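Progress note, sequence design subtask.
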């Protein structure tokens, strides 16, 4: 049940994320065609997008505790009832902030948080709770804003789910009923955390919120055998398409987590990830009545511009969704709605029937806005974002649930997505050829079938094999794996931006030289200097071996850090271990050639030919990833204003 536990805390506020954007374009990785203009502000192919001097920082700002809920059903919103109300959520103190980075320029659909500290403190900076957020990539990218997208530049939102580890409890925690209950309930000194982000600013707007967004957070107990990076809960998928914008279906309530507690006869729904908002600050203008209900008949429809309807004979109403129009409801409640003491018929049905979100459309008639996953089946991978070196094996954990319960001893199938074609130079790709992905197929080894244990968990060993620079100017290769229940395909209503796949960056094979020369690291360091101008402009020119030798102590420190440390270099965490060790070895004895050889900067050769046909249509999941990356980066974004979500 994770963060939807009866015992939970809600906070809201802002987050800052000044991601670097020169590396958003894969063509910018090519040292042979790189131009200085690629480091300048601008959206075109000849510029560095909207934040070329970003430092990948992620931090909480202006975040405060809004409410807590206890296992006895109480909800507390006043400091007099619990001192934790109104307390502050902050990041690291006296050290570098966390980072937000993509796996690769060709896989930007699951941006990860690394090295993020979570601190719950008083206004006097007294610690109540402190810990480290385990690295996690966002999921469930979906449409949030009805209007105002042209102001902030990003109308979509996403969700990070993780655990807070290495927890320290401060003396003040003993005075909080909620924190006492949380400490007594959670296991292995970890708590679950969920972060719903929206309203991010790409644009330099007059309100001064550039590179900031809004965040709704929830912490709750974590239970053993639960996944770390997603909630072990049930799922609603939106099937009502408001409109199609530039080829992308606009679906509100697209992905929503919920939990059903049969013993308490209660259902808790997290609308914080999916409720439509009027603007970047989370205001709500919707005034329609919405109901949660249980469907007596199976609903298998995918999302469509044609509304799907039902009637009072086919559903049992649980209750009205108690949202409020205006600026406050979402930010004060986190969008978490709990309906208690539901009627006996609905409670009995909900054990093995689908939850639906309804809007009245006539006497005894309803439009289905969202419906639960088909057969109540949810299959997800926990550690779904992977960095893999040659001869390294990662143990991936896949989980299968039905109606919120683990599916024991069932088979899951895993397949490699088909290769994608090389993108030739043309009007929409003017700089250089772009590599294809998912080849060579023998670059990774994995089992195509795995079985779940009593916790609904299956272990998938994933091994990296030798590949020799198939993308030429970008290290390694991107592989994408699909997974599903052996007897049931992925739900077609998962959404046009869904990313329930396994994403792998397999690094190139590389041997550490006995005595590294500048030419052994020149290509890598020049690429870093090109892609991250903040380093060259304010610290050290990474393309200059003399400058690097001058700053070798601080560089050795950064390149020697644990990958979980926010100081770790490279910030993007896309360097193979052997290349990192080669850089460190060179820094120990920085041999600076008197004549820099051009061959050391530009790799000769060509892209490895793709097995894909040049005009091959993308698969559904490849199209979803392309849509997700476009949506996340604001590429090809056509502003829209939606006055009416429901057109029927």
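Output:
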């Amino acid at each position: 049940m994770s963060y939807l536990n009866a015992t939970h805390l809600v906070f809201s506020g802002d987050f800052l994320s000044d991601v670097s954007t020169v590396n958003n374009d894969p063509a910018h990785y090519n040292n042979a065609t790189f131009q200085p203009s690629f480091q300048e502000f601008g959206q075109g192919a000849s510029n560095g997008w909207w934040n070329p001097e970003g430092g990948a920082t992620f931090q909480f700002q202006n975040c405060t505790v809004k409410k807590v809920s206890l296992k006895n059903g109480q909800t507390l919103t006043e400091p007099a009832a619990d001192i934790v109300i109104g307390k502050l959520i902050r990041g690291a103190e006296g050290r570098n902030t966390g980072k937000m980075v993509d796996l690769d320029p060709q896989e930007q659909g699951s941006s990860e948080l690394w090295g993020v500290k979570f601190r719950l403190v008083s206004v006097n900076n007294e610690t109540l709770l402190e810990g480290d957020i385990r690295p996690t990539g966002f999921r469930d990218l979906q449409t949030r804003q009805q209007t105002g997208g042209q102001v902030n530049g990003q109308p979509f939102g996403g969700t990070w789910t993780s655990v807070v580890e290495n927890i320290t409890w401060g003396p003040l925690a003993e005075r909080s009923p909620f924190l006492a209950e949380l400490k007594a309930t959670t296991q292995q000194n970890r708590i679950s955390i969920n972060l719903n982000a929206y309203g991010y600013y790409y644009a330099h707007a007059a309100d001064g919120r550039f590179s900031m967004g809004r965040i709704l957070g929830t912490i709750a107990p974590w239970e053993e055998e639960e996944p770390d990076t997603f909630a072990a809960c049930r799922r609603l998928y939106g099937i009502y398409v408001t409109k199609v914008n530039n080829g992308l279906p606009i679906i509100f309530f697209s992905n929503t987590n919920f939990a059903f507690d049969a013993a308490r006869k209660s259902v808790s729904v997290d609308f914080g990830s999916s409720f439509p908002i009027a603007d970047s600050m989370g205001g709500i203008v919707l005034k329609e009545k919405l109901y949660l209900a249980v469907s007596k008949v199976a609903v298998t429809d995918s999302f469509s511009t044609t509304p799907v309807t039902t009637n009072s004979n086919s559903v049992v109403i649980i209750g009205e969704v108690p949202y409020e129009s205006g600026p406050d409801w979402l930010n004060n409640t986190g969008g978490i709605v709990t309906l208690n003491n539901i009627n006996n018929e609905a409670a009995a049905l909900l054990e093995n029937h689908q939850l639906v979100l309804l809007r009245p459309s006539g006497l005894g008639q309803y439009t289905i806005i969202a419906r639960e996953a088909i057969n109540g089946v949810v299959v997800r991978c926990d550690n779904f974002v992977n960095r893999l070196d040659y001869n390294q094996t990662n143990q991936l954990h896949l989980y299968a649930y039905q109606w919120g319960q683990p599916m024991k001893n069932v088979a899951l199938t895993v397949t490699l997505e088909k290769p994608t074609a090389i993108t030739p130079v043309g009007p929409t790709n003017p700089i250089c050829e772009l590599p294809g992905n998912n080849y060579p197929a023998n670059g990774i080894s994995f089992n195509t079938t795995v079985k779940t244990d009593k916790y609904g968990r299956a272990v998938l060993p994933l091994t990296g094999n030798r590949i020799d620079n198939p993308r030429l100017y970008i290290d390694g290769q991107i592989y994408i794996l699909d997974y599903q229940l052996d007897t049931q395909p992925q739900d077609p209503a998962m959404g046009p931006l869904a990313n329930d796949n396994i994403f792998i960056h397999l690094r190139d094979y590389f041997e550490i030289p006995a005595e590294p020369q500048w030419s052994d690291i020149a290509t890598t360091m020049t690429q870093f200097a090109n892609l991250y101008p903040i380093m060259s402009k304010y610290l050290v020119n990474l393309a200059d071996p003399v400058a690097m030798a001058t700053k070798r102590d601080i560089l050795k420190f950064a390149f020697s850090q644990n990958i979980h440390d926010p100081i770790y270099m490279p910030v993007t965490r896309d360097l193979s271990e052997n290349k990192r060790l080669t850089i460190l070895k060179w820094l120990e004895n920085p041999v600076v050639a008197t004549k820099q050889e051009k061959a050391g900067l530009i790799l000769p050769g060509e892209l490895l030919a793709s097995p894909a046909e040049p005009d091959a249509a993308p698969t559904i999941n490849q199209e979803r990833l392309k849509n997700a990356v476009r949506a996340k980066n604001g590429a090809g974004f056509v502003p829209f204003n939606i006055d009416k979500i429901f057109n029927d």
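The domain at 377-510 is CATH 2.60.40.10 (Immunoglobulin-like). Work on this subtask will continue into the next period as scheduled.
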